[in-house]
Amino acid sequence: MKKKILIVALLVSSILTSAFAGKTESVSEKVLTSFRNEFKQAQELNWETGKGFAKVTFKLNEQVMFGYYEENGNLVALVRNIVTNQLPINLMTTVLNNLEGYWITDLFEVAASQSRSYYVTIQNADNTLVLKSEDGGAWQLYKKTRKDVD
After folding, report:
1. Are 132 and 125 in contact (CB under 8 A)?
2. For residues 132, 122, 77 and 113, what is the CA-based torsion angle, rounded to 10 degrees?
3. Alpha helix ranges (H) inside 53-147
4. Helix (H, G, I), strand (E, B) or coil at 116
């Protein structure tokens, strides 16, 4: 009986370890080295590759983040979902004071080289709006979509 429990525990442990290790077979060594140097404490890695880039989803300090790398190991952008009180004060007050009839469905921050952008998706019964702010500047309409009315 003890042998069976030990074998099951080892199998579960190895499955969980491989599930959270992230697949790195198609990720270049330059990208992996760059990531490891910058995010030593990262956990729960999940890698995806596309033409000319690699995307890693990971957890750092209990926050899920997304890193986008060029094949040469250059970090292009780091993205994280945020809540409204993590916005710069001017952006937070503007969006919260002008939401009448709308609600927030998505909010994230993009850090790329020397810039930081914020995107907020708001919607009402008729429209979905995506607003963008670059480096804490005023919100600009990035995209507007009219919902299909049945």
Report:
1. no
2. 30
3. 89-97
4. strand
Mean per-residue pLDDT, 72-79: 95
Residues in the chain: 150
**β-strand partners of 8:** none
Contact 52, 30 (CB under 8 A): no
Contact 38, 31 (CB under 8 A): no
> Over the chain, what is the mean pLDDT?
85
> CA torsion sign, 54 to 120 to 131 to 114?
negative
pLDDT tens sequence across 132-147 = 999 989 999 999 999 8
**pLDDT exceeds cutoff 70 at 17:** no
